């Protein structure tokens, strides 16, 4: 009988094991057991993975210069975590060996269980693990990736060689950063990693659940609540079976860390697809709406919004009230953003007389164009300069009735120098109000402007509506924190973690 | 009194004038009059712009080696089109000179009219033009860009020099292609051009209206109806004042060319922003819904959908019925797509028994994985190969109850070679059913796969929901054509123009 350990301690083994055995490690490059073992071996050589590492395979003596063991039993020393990459029917035996070895945790990467109707095998594995006190992630999953501890079970290599002989990045691992990715679908999970790497958004931890026969969302959320690296949780789910536990834990987490959730299987066709995917019964979509709402989870509608809202929440403070200002170099995009805000319940109120007068004064001083419109949006027109953007944004951030600002500085504006990005970003650091930016386009200057905003901590987006949706997440989360009395503590934490 | 000309002839002058005078042409690189004149001069030197070109400016003798005229009157020879880039108060006089010169059309780029309350000046200009039979585009607009005739009035240079001394693409001109862009907002218009250039989507014609004191949407649409290069019209509007005419013309256009429209100013805040932008009264949004629906215009909800739907309609046939199949390498993204389809009124029906049996047969023959699910989506799982994608897609395209296919071939799938793109694309050419593809991610392999699909005429998208929305446009347009008896003719045209 093992000594009782906390959930956090148990889950910690998946992310920072002192010793790992990869059962099914292989020399053959096409095998998942090769890629996973090589990830660990590479990270150990680089000094990132600091635990002991054991390949297990009865047919090999050495793998990548590591002595290979014919079974778990042969390994001399402790094995805290077992990564299982053998055919499904062999898994029960491996789990028994893991039990004998007093392993604490196992990640079963192998498929061929409940998802194809093989529930009996799943039950067998579960029974062994439960008796031995082994926590299981999976089966049928991608497992864990942790950029700081070097745990990397993604059996998809970072690069691939095309038939032309060229090597290209295929499954990149994002840099270390504030966003944790928790996903039922492994494929969608790696797609998110690819997106984050391309956008240079940092990752704290990645977990893919697969069939979730043991560890589920609530336990991972509890772990992430205590993980100092994670500031935002990005969650993809097709079903959440542990509903009550989920709600309890989510309520605790969202006091100090936003959870952004995409729940699919909303419609009849989607639910049928989900059923044949992981055997999950998607359940009434309205129940999920209610669960998320009550526990402060921000539910998003699609992939883009999931990524954008997570990024916004990771780098900007939530809004302390529901009224957002728009400052723009062009009318059209500002109208689209205003439309999207209103349709998401975010107010774009007409500026106060006092604020309008400040802009009128700037017109008199010829510091902004006389033909600028200043009701909200503040439209500085195509004649906008960097100085005007800075002046305008400062007045909006100073307005006590305005709780956040969206900056639409289209790079086409002839007199606008790129230093407006730095001016706006530096200015925004003096206020605890969210600032987001937008520039539209897919060629060099657009990418440069967005990249520069992102680097300076102001998330930027490539369409007005995306920007508005990200702001909606900041507003709705802020309102939740306010309503429940968590806002002050959250902002204090934000100041310490993001603004120092 | 000029001889009466048709609307098409009149509008044609904006796109392919035999002679152009740029009034307000300048040597100073920061001036709009410089950029516009240089665009024409460059295109004339390259042999793209074939008309006569005259700079008009009383203070210069030569501009870019072209003899400069002190006024329109001094120009020897005809001037069909006058581009006006002088301060607003000088415009009436220029218009009078244009009238004396028997000009057919004028683009008034200059701002300072109705958008800042200067309606009297606008009326004055209108009166002169009407009397002389001159058609006007603008004022306060970007005018026209036509990639094949070399007419380029965009006063935003293609590249910009950053403060670091590096030159980057800032306002790219897309390649020649099938999509016409018609926009009330110039700034949004060039943002669309930037997007199209980055995505390598071709442009036929670009028109920015500005204050629309004369030429409006209906006349441009009528012109585009007869323009052989244009296959799809992308329309951005904040208001459409010529409602009845719009509906009449749109009905004619959508018989053979889809119009994809983004109408902003939908909400109260958006409408207020629109009012202060172009003075447009946005009107009840439901009226627009009804106008678009009755005239077969596809109304989209945001910027991304506007671009995606336009691309899909330019390169794929509309669906002949409402039932779409999904074939995928991963469950999660397929569920999201199914959800989005259903919520947009697109059916993802369970496959017929016959089609299911074909997949069961493939399983028996070990040509697709035994654990693949085949109800719709067809989930070929992470074990998918190029051959499986080809086999699966063929069976779906052969099914008479299926009217289109979405292919989710995530590039992470270990055994999937990139030639699956070519197999699917080549296969799709044998059917008159829409095929769209999706790969998620922002690094090299994702971009490579999407680029390869696009090049082969299968539009590809970076999220499941984007793909579903683009397919929804193909379904709804197809149903409109079917209902009104236009489908057969449309498909015949599509075969001739796209598939040869």
SSE order and pairing:
The structure is a homodimer of 500-residue chains.
Chain A: H1 7-15, E1 19-23, H2 32-45, E2 52-56, E3 62-63, E4 66-67, E5 81-84, H3 91-100, E6 105-108, H4 119-132, E7 135-137, E8 143-146, E9 151-152, E10 159-161, E11 167-169, E12 176-183, H5 186-198, E13 203-208, H6 217-225, E14 232-237, H7 243-256, E15 259-263, H8 268-278, H9 285-294, E16 298-299, H10 303-315, E17 325-328, H11 331-343, H12 353-364, E18 373-374, E19 378-379, H13 386-398, E20 405-408, H14 419-428, E21 435-438, H15 444-455, E22 460-461, H16 464-483, H17 487-498
Parallel strand pairs in A: 1-2, 1-5, 5-6, 6-7, 12-13, 12-14, 14-15, 15-16, 17-19, 17-20, 20-21, 21-22
Antiparallel strand pairs in A: 3-4, 8-9, 8-13, 10-11, 18-19
Helix pairs in contact in A: 1-6, 3-4, 6-7, 10-16, 11-16, 13-14
Describe the overall structure.
Two copies of one chain form a homodimer. Chain A has three domains: 1-140, NAD(P)-binding Rossmann-like Domain (Rossmann fold); 156-315, Rossmann fold (3-Layer(aba) Sandwich); 316-498, Succinyl-CoA synthetase domains (Rossmann fold, 3-Layer(aba) Sandwich), CATH 3.40.50.261. Chain A is 42% helix and 16% strand. Chain A has 17 helices and 22 strands. In chain A, α10 (303-315) packs across α16. The radius of gyration of chain A is 25 Å and the shape is elongated. The two termini of chain A are 46 Å apart. Chains A and B meet through α5, α8, α11, α15 and α16 of A and α5, α8, α11, α15 and α16 of B.
């Amino acid at each position: 009988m093992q000594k009782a350990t906390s959930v956090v301690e148990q889950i910690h083994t998946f992310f920072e094991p002192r010793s790992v055995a990869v059962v099914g490690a292989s020399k053959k490059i096409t095998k998942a057991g090769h890629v996973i073992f090589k990830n660990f071996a590479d990270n150990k050589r680089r000094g990132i993975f600091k635990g002991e590492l054991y390949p297990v395979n009865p047919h090999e003596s050495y793998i990548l210069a590591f002595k290979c063991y014919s079974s778990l039993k042969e390994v001399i020393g402790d094995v805290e975590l077992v990564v299982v990459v053998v055919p499904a029917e062999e898994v029960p035996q491996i789990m028994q060996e893991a039990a004998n070895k007093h392993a604490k945790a196992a990640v079963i990467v192998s498929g061929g269980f409940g998802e194809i109707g093989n529930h009996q095998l799943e039950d067998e594995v579960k029974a062994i693990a439960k008796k031995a006190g082994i926590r299981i992630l999976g089966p049928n999953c991608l497992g864990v990736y942790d950029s700081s501890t070097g745990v990397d079970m993604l059996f998809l290599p970072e690069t691939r060689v095309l038939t032309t002989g060229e090597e290209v990045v295929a499954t990149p691992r994002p840099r270390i950063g504030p966003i944790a990715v928790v996903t039922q679908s492994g494929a969608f999970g790696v797609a998110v990693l690819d997106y984050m790497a391309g956008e240079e958004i940092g990752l704290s931890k990645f977990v893919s659940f697969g069939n979730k026969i043991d560890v589920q969302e609530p336990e991972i959320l509890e772990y992430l609540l205590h993980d100092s690296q994670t500031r935002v949780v990005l969650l993809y789910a097709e079903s959440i079976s542990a509903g009550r536990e989920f709600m309890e834990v989510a309520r605790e987490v969202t006091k100090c860390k936003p959870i952004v959730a995409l729940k699919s299987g909303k419609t009849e066709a989607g639910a049928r697809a989900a059923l044949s995917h992981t055997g999950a019964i998607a359940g009434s979509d309205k129940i999920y709406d209610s669960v998320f709402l009550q526990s402060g989870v921000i539910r998003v509608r699609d992939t883009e919004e999931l990524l954008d809202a997570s990024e916004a929440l990771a780098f900007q403070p939530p809004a302390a009230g529901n009224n957002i200002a728009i400052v723009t170099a062009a009318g059209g995009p500002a109208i689209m953003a205003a439309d999207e805000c209103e349709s998401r319940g975010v107010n774009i109120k007409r500026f106060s007389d006092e604020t309008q007068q400040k802009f009128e004064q700037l017109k008199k001083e010829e510091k902004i164009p006389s033909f600028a419109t200043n009701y909200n949006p503040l439209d500085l027109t195509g004649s906008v300069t960097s100085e005007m953007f800075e002046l305008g944004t400062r007045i909006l951030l100073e307005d006590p009735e305005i709780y956040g600002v969206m900056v639409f500085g289209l790079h086409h504006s002839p007199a606008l120098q790129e230093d407006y990005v730095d001016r706006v970003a530096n200015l925004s650091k003096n206020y605890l109000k969210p600032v987001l930016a937008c520039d539209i386009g897919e060629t060099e200057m657009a990418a440069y402007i967005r990249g520069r905003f992102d680097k300076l901590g102001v998330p930027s987006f490539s369409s007005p509506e995306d920007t508005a949706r990200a702001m909606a997440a900041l507003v709705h989360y802020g309102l939740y924190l306010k309503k429940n009395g968590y806002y002050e503590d959250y902002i204090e934490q934000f100041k310490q973690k993001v603004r120092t």
